[in-house]
Design goal:
Helix 2 packs antiparallel against helix 3. The chain has a single domain, classed as FAD/NAD(P)-binding domain. It contains 6 helices and no strands. It binds flavin-adenine dinucleotide. Flavin-adenine dinucleotide binds next to helix 2.
Length: 140
């Protein structure tokens, strides 16, 4: 099992504790500037894209840009912080880690002898839900 201590030691430059706010007046943060995270499973770039889509939506739908920046922060700060924390304990390649454990990191002929397709799918879906890119979350 990977621990947060292992992760922080391994990637001291890219994983930072979530901060309490991103917006000050007419300035806000997005992407890595707002929430640098453990880089796995395309989460860094995807979270930056979700940020800018949310920010663009807020700016387009509000006559007050300062209020739009605050609304963007309210929508995105906690979900992004949750991904930072999740990546420390259950990273998206947790599947690889689990398979390595189950197989004893030895060659195998058939993965189904160790874990079912349903279990693999459940592990993957659980991370997608936490990261905000499950199909249900992005479809619109
Ligand atoms: C080793 C590593 C592997 C990664 N692997 C993946 C991966 O597989 N998948 C994934 O999705 N993400 C990965 N990431 C994370 C991903 O690269 C970032 O999350 C993503 O690039 C963040 O985008 P951004 O636009 O916020 O920041 P950046 O991509 O860092 O863009 C910021 C830009 O601002 C510029 N800039 C900085 N200061 C100034 C200034 N004063 N004036 C003008 N310009 C400035 C920089 O030059 C840069 O071009 C990885 C990161 C690392 C470090």
């Amino acid at each position: 099992m990977i621990s947060s201590a292992d992760t922080i030691l391994e990637y001291p430059m890219v994983d930072k504790d979530p901060v309490a706010r991103w917006t000050v007046g007419r300035v806000t943060l997005a992407g890595d500037a707002a929430h640098p995270m453990y880089p796995r499973g395309s989460n860094g770039a995807v979270q930056a894209l979700i940020d800018v889509r949310t920010l663009a939506d807020q700016l387009a739908s509000s006559a007050d840009p300062v209020a739009a920046l605050k609304a963007y922060e309210s929508a995105r700060l906690e979900p992004a912080a949750r991904v930072v924390r999740t990546n420390r304990e259950h990273p998206p390649d947790f599947i690889n880690i689990r398979v390595e454990e189950l197989t004893g990191d030895r060659p195998f002929a058939n993965l189904d002898d160790f874990i079912t397709q349903d279990e693999l799918r459940a592990l993957s879906e659980s991370y997608k839900r936490a990261a905000g890119f499950a199909i249900a979350a992005v479809a619109r």
